[in-house]
Hints:
Number of strands: 29
Distance between the termini: 139 Å
Number of helices: 23
CATH superfamily of the largest domain: Response regulator
Number of domains: 4
Low-confidence stretches: 1-22, 128-137
CATH class of the largest domain: Alpha Beta
Structural class: alpha/beta
Helix content: 40-55%
Strand content: 15-25%
Strand order of the largest sheet: 10-9-11-12-13-18-19-20
Amino acid sequence: MTPLLLWPLFQFLAALNQSPNPQCSLKGNFRPGFLANGDFIIGGLFPLHYNMEMPDLNCTYKPGPVRCNGFDPRAFRWALTLRLAVDQINQREDLLPNHTLGYKIFDSCAYPLTGQRAALAVLNGPAEVNSPMCSGSSPLLAIVGESGSAQSIVVSRILRPFRIPMISYFSSCSCLSNRREFPTFFRVIPSDDYQVKAIAQLLLRLNWTWVGVVRGDHEYGRFALQGLLRELEGTGICVAYQEMIPLLYNRQKALEIIHVMNSSSARVVVVFSAEGELTPFLRDYMEQNVTGIQWIASEAWVTASVFTGSEYYPFLGGTIGFGIRQGQIPGLRDYLMTVNPVTYPSNPLVKKLWETLYDCSPSSSSSRNSILPPCTGQETLNKQHSAYINTSSPRISYNVYKGVYAIAHSLHNLISCRPGRGPFSNFSCADVRNIYPWQLQHYLQEVSFTISGEMMEFDMNGDSIPSYDLINWQRGSAGNVEFVNVGLFDGAQDPGKELVIQEKGIVWAGHQGEVLVSVCSESCVPGFRRAVRRGQPLCCFDCVPCDSGKISNRTDSVDCMPCPEDYWSNAAGTRCIPKAVDFLTHDAMGIALTVIAVVGACLTVAVLVVFLYHRNTPVVRINNSELSFFILFALALCFLCALVFIGEPTSWSCMLRHTAFSITFSLCISCILGKTLVVLAAFTATQPGNNVMKWLGPKQQRVIIFSCTMVQVMICAAWLITSPPFPSRNTQYQRSKIILECTVGSDVAFWCVLGYIGLLAGVCFILAFQARNLPGNFNEAKYITFSMLIFCAVWLAFVPAYVSSPGKFTTAVEIFAILASSFGLLLCLFAPKCYIILLKPEKNTRQHLMGKEK
């Protein structure tokens, strides 16, 4: 057990040892601050002091009384509000007619231990000193209190066995909504479940994703933190640190917390604390000269008048938080002005009020030991005493006011009960002369009335309708702190519409007009995704650009979305655009190939014209002019078929380009094969008895050319019938583009076509190679050999290049092979002849060609 818990036990044992007899009697005196008799007595517990000093606990003598320090004029105003409300009710004829309310007001000293002591004292009746403590029953029916949640938990547990209802005006811990644990607890302040929801929405609205949390060492702070963490789940907001101010203030611990706050990159801090424990903490905070932090205050201290001094503004100016909704209390200011030491000469609380407000000791109660200068006790209250007399926007005082009226209306309903229509057993009513507290609680649970235009009622958990004002700390005319309403939170509204903020009217930390930024990592713009840093919260991340083919079209995307198959990401990675369609078009490369093909066809036609013009010359006639014309015609078609490969592939162009290419080249090679056979036969026919030439006449040559070409035609026909080439959209090879290409349909047919052309070229090469050394000035077999060698080399190189070339380059490789092999045939077969015909006409004679020229 801690010394704090042992202290009441020590007091009890000491008193027991000193008692002359075992009779139960009062062993101490804990006088109420204010006392008034009435038909119905209610209690009031207020933190008239905001900290306490523990007595010496050496166990050798009776401990002294607890000393309460730091008189709070604001809490004193709350207590006087209870007195005012009771006086107003007692003067009304429509509420509790012929009955009066009385009260006992005690100081809880803002601490659970002294709150417990005050609760026990308030239970003992109005005159404990003059009557035994344990005899009779207490006339107490209800209590208005407590301020802090920790004190309310203690007091509520004490009251539970007696079933005495308690209405709190300032305890917001969500834990107190547990009806099983706190069955007699009511409150006129919203539960922290709504406050943390409001704070979470505020953080989201202002894009504060990296915040710190400081809380007090009590149930209020613990449950508020748990509720806030629960509300922040899945919102993208992270808590950078969680610090706790000790219940018994420790300066070293406070400096450690301040260091964490100052060194953290989180520039927004949410504080769940009471003003009593926060006051010394803020003094140390200001001593360390820490600035640039945006404070978010809980309702427990956001409107605390103790922080309105001008010394607080440079450090706490711009603080924002949710405060209790304000209301109107008629006559409160005038009532407060009547309280002074002259009117209450024997009341020590009024004396402390004057000492706190004026730093003087009233003459009516001054003593020689007072260290303060004397004063009359009739000094005039003014603006500098706003902690006490500021009634322009009462909040906590208004809650006290509502709590008293809730009890009064409940009592009124109780005494208005008609026999036989009551809510208790056998429809009975309560005995007005002997009311039990649990009977009053029944009516409290169902009470409903209007006060200052506001509907007042409790739900099944004893909670009232949740609503808050959004408060901003701004500089007043005297440099002090003023609480300015800049919005509201109404929990009765639809989800998402509860929070209303007037951002233009807010002054932010450091007296700035713009919202302070508090993020662990800057937002990722569209086109990037968030990559969480290892070992750090989700709010700390790196921005990684989306991979090609993926996009993110919103800020802070967790992942990038893949584009549909026919779409690709733009350069910024923010949207999907249709993929570029890629095929060999009339661009630079397409135009170059077209020009080369046309030039090749024109050269072939030019050679044909030359041969036609000189068809009767020996060079033309000796090389079989008919076959030469056929070869030139076929070569012209070979050059021109390359043009079919350029342009967007269609069903017809795909079938045409492969069949045209294969048939024209088969025709060309067949003609060359026929010429090779003729050359070989012509030189072997000179041998005696050889009659080969009769089998290679013009007609037979045509049959050979036609037969060899028809074989290719039949292969192509079978290809087109069974599985013809067709256009396809290739999205796999280059994912950023759609490659329009002609798929061959049947790979077997495609390679059969090429194989057949290769077979013809191979046979032609072998035959020409055998005739290369035959005598003659112009042995055409040599040129056929060279042409076939070039042709075969081009197409052998074509195969790996065709297989490995991407996209439109596959088509370009095929066109290049067609043009290269065509030029090879044209140059090797006809360039030497054109050279003789055009440049060396003297060699274009029969004698020269036969080698008989002298």
